[in-house]
Amino acid sequence: MLALSACQPMARRPDTSATISTQSAPRVGSDSSALPSPDDNLNAVAWTQTAIEHDLIYRQAYRMAGDELLQALSDPTWEALPIGERKSPVLDPHQTAVILDIDETVLDNSPYQARLVVNGESYNEATWIPWCREEAARAMPGSLAFTQLAASKGVKVFYLSNRAGELGAATLDNLRKLEFPIASDEDVFLGLGTTVAGCASKGSDKGCRRELISRKYRVLLQIGDQLGDFIDVPTNTAAGREQAITPYLDWIGQRWFVLPNPTYGSWEPALFNNDWKLPAAERRRAKKASLRTN
């Protein structure tokens, strides 16, 4: 059994201050006081829930991941852990695993994001925890077929999430309802706060949890919607994120599969110095200042 102990709050705080559609934009001289506050997440959530392109991207990624999984199984030297995270040698190359994030990777939380937009709210645990306990998230397109394929090949499926440990039972129940493979012989949900002997984690970094898996398994693939699902990022700035991923660009679409998430993520606070204490208007100004116009 992989020992874990988790009960910490989620680290992400999606901003929901945002844009007004051009159709509702006020004309010069008009009174804009009656207009709703802008919400940057409106278009992002609408695209996530309604654009067929969103679903096609997921299906494409998971189909490619399935193809690469079969190749990885035939190559005993195949490894998808970032450099330096494997602390112990692979004892049995046939003991294999894939690591998947949960939120916006296998489970669709867009209804929660939609509620925030509709209600004019921002992410907070008082609304997030009840949503998770509803166990109502749907499967992301392609994710169920991929995980079932992996399980059918004897590959252990680990769900490595920054959901708090206290949400583990509800999360696993949600996954079971959707018929995701959940191994019964060990803990396959590794939430935020998981204790890993001999490894000190920083914040919501997942490196120690990946290392924990690697102590018993050869990791074939990683799938997620955030850079931190693949590698710990020392400096969360645009430049720091690019520097962290550059050595692994050849792994994208081969060992690592990155899924789109425009609704929240560490990419956003990287634009305002990771300071969520800034007023929403200042965060929005910083995001606008990051835009390229040529």
Secondary-structure map:
Layout lengths: L40 H10 L1 H22 L22 E5 L6 E2 L1 H10 L5 H10 L3 E2 L3 H10 L3 E9 L3 H10 L11 E4 L14 H8 L3 E7 L13 H8 L10 E3 L21 H10 L5
What's a concise summary of this model?
With 294 residues, the chain is α/β, with parallel strands linked by helices.
Structural features, described:
The chain has nine helices and seven strands; from the N terminus they run H-H-E-E-H-H-E-H-E-H-E-H-E-H-E-H. The protein is an alpha/beta fold and 294 residues long. It has one domain (40-281): HAD superfamily/HAD-like (Rossmann fold), CATH 3.40.50. The strands form two sheets. It has a five-stranded parallel beta sheet, with helices on both faces. Strands 2-3 form a two-stranded antiparallel ribbon. Helix 1 (41-50) packs antiparallel against helix 3. Residues 1-32 have low confidence and may be disordered.
Give me some keywords for this one.
294 residues, alpha/beta, Rossmann fold, 5-stranded parallel beta sheet, two-stranded antiparallel sheet, 9 helices, 7 strands, 33% helix
